[in-house]
Design brief:
With 528 residues, the protein is of the alpha+beta class. The protein has four domains: 76 residues, no CATH class; 88 residues, PDZ domain (Pdz3 Domain); 207 residues, 2-enoyl-CoA Hydratase, Chain A, domain 1; 107 residues, no CATH class. The protein has 17 helices and 22 strands. Strands 1, 2, 14, 15, 18 and 19 form a six-stranded mixed beta sheet that branches. Strands 4, 5, 6, 7, 8 and 9 form a six-stranded antiparallel beta sheet that branches. Strand 20 and strand 21 form a beta hairpin. Helix 1 crosses helix 2, helix 8 packs parallel to helix 9 and helix 12 crosses helix 16. It starts with a helix and ends with a helix.
């Protein structure tokens, strides 16, 4: 065999050996939900021998990290689209996302013209308690100069750190240079985007993920809304990609009574496991509408599927993503992790929500994009019949095998395909303009008592649109808004982003929902 063939084959053998060898003796490093330890894999001795021979006798130096990562990715890519290898460098962010918190000071910021501007300050967070406000400009962090930064990741590294430690920040605050010492703390990554009363009897809750804090946040919001007189609820799960299954199960338990089946999971190496309602729910009888779209996946689909199977809620929107696979996360000895699919989940009637993936990952991932770009309302209709038919107790026919099909379809607003509008999202033009508009009109905006008053009483006029176009042009982006629909769309987003700065996410959605087709249809569906 030629040297060239040896050079080609050896890294492959080595990579396979590394992959299987890494699974021996791994132990659980975290008590986070969905994280498991891994037991020794039998039959791997021969491959370990090959690995050792290559490491000890191979003619050239082998890049162990690169070879093992490539081999692991190659192996995992032969499985389903949701099993994934997570390198050590990415694991911290993913873990924080699931745990629902990180250590830092509690600000959002952006870099404009080489200067770091604070866009939002967490209420009751470390930065707020130290006196930092929206509009402050960060000049330095400890001994590091912040002016001239091009990469926001660098600033994140400076301000994040262990809770209880102190970071010194020099600011431009109301025209004066000041210094503040901020004691870092645990910063929540909230699952609850918004919660408010639509009117005297209708409530609204929007969740963006399912982390370890989601059920607690949801329950607190639900209790407040009920105390305010809520008898009907719109639960918005649009673009909620899922997360921890148990959090979704606890939420469903608040909506259904008795010991009804919520969901069950089953896999080749995972025995059937049933999850049932186990306590009296806080909202078992009021009218319930769930909003979904093609970005709603996994745990979001568990909620919609269970409520639909039990005839408990009306599902409004577009067909969900179609992810019915359960992953567990195994932490490996080098600090990386393998998130492995171990089962499928099934709705109470036995529907599998997982859409097909037998034609490859690329086609699987493009399926949703094709739905959106084709504005395929038919794909959100029961007529698609993607899988076996099931019938609820009230006679409703449902299908599995391709996500959750809504009871009432809301087509995609065609204005989102306007290329002029798309240009405004380059360089975050609308968001950056809204921040400047807020600073220049702070008094007028804060004159409104709350976000609801602002949503009803404040209007973005044509002069503001002209200012936006001028601002975009100064950023090198030429935009022409030719249709009334695109102009109105832009006005609503400017107004919503200003409300976000003034009243956080709830303010943003209180403004945006007023002109949102899905939200309007959901409210109309209450009681029908």
């Amino acid at each position: 065999m030629s040297n060239r063939k040896i050079n080609a084959a050896t890294p492959i053998l080595f990579s396979i050996a590394v992959v299987l060898g890494m699974f021996i003796g791994y132990k659980l490093r975290s008590n986070m939900p969905m994280t498991k330890s891994f037991l020794t894999s039998p039959g791997s001795n021969t491959l370990n021998e090959v690995m050792q021979l290559i490491k000890q006798r191979y003619v050239d130096k082998v890049n162990v990290d690169s070879a093992s990562s490539n081999a692991i990715n190659g192996l995992v890519n032969t499985l389903d689209p949701h099993s994934v290898y997570i390198p050590t460098s990415e694991l911290t962010d993913i873990t924080e996302d699931l745990e629902g918190q990180f250590q830092g000071i509690g600000i959002e910021f952006n870099i404009f013209n080489d200067t770091v501007h604070i866009l939002s300050v967490l209420e009751n967070g470390p930065a707020k308690n130290a006196g930092l406000t929206v509009g402050d400009r960060i000049l330095a962090v400890n001994d590091s100069i912040a002016t001239g930064l091009k990469d926001s990741e660098q600033l994140k590294k400076w301000v994040k750190g262990p809770a209880g430690s102190t970071v010194n920040i020099r600011l431009m605050h109301e025209g004066k240079i000041i210094s503040k010492s901020v004691v870092r703390g645990s910063i929540p990554i909230t699952s609850l985007d918004a919660s408010y009363m639509i009117d005297k009897t209708k409530g609204y809750i929007r969740l963006n993920r399912f982390s370890s804090n989601t059920y607690k946040e949801f329950l607190e919001a639900l209790e407040k809304l009920k105390a305010a007189g809520m008898t009907s609820l719109v639960l918005d799960l649009r673009d909620n990609g899922g997360g921890i299954l148990e959090e979704a199960i606890d939420i469903i338990d608040e909506f259904i009574g008795g010991e009804k089946l919520i969901v069950y999971t089953e896999g080749q190496n995972s025995p059937k496991k049933e999850y049932k309602a186990k306590r009296a729910g806080l909202f078992e009888t009021g009218d319930l509408v769930v909003l979904m779209n093609e970005g709603s996946a996994s745990a979001s689909e568990v909620i919609a599927g269970a409520l639909q199977d039990h005839d408990r809620a009306t599902i409004v929107g577009r067909r969900s993503f179609g992810k019915g696979l359960v992953q567990e996360q195994y932490v490996l000895s080098d600090g990386s992790a393998l998130r492995l699919t171990i089962a499928r989940y099934y709705t109470p009637l036995g529907r599998s929500i997982q859409k097909p993936y037998n034609e490859g990952h690329a086609k699987y991932n493009m399926e949703v994009m094709n739905r959106v770009h084709n504005n395929d309302s038919a794909a959100s209709n029961a007529g698609t019949k993607l899988g076996k038919a099931f019938k609820t107790a009230k006679g409703k026919v449902l299908y599995g095998g391709g996500g959750i099909t809504p009871d009432a379809v809301v087509e995609i607003n065609p204005v989102i395909f306007d290329t002029n509008l798309n240009a405004l999202y380059q360089k975050n033009i609308i968001g950056n303009f809204a921040y400047r508009y807020f600073l220049n009109n702070n008094g007028k905006i804060k004159a409104f008592a709350d976000a609801a008053a602002f949503a009803s009483g404040f209007n973005v006029d044509d002069n503001v649109i002209k200012q936006l176009m001028d601002f975009a042009q100064n950023q090198g982006i030429i935009v022409k808004l030719n249709s009334p629909a695109s102009i109105n769309w832009t006005k609503q987003r400017i107004k919503a982003m200003v409300a976000r700065i003034a009243w956080n996410e709830t303010g943003y959605f209180q403004v945006l929902n007023k002109s949102d087709d899905g939200f309007v249809r959901a409210v109309e569906a209450i009681g029908k």
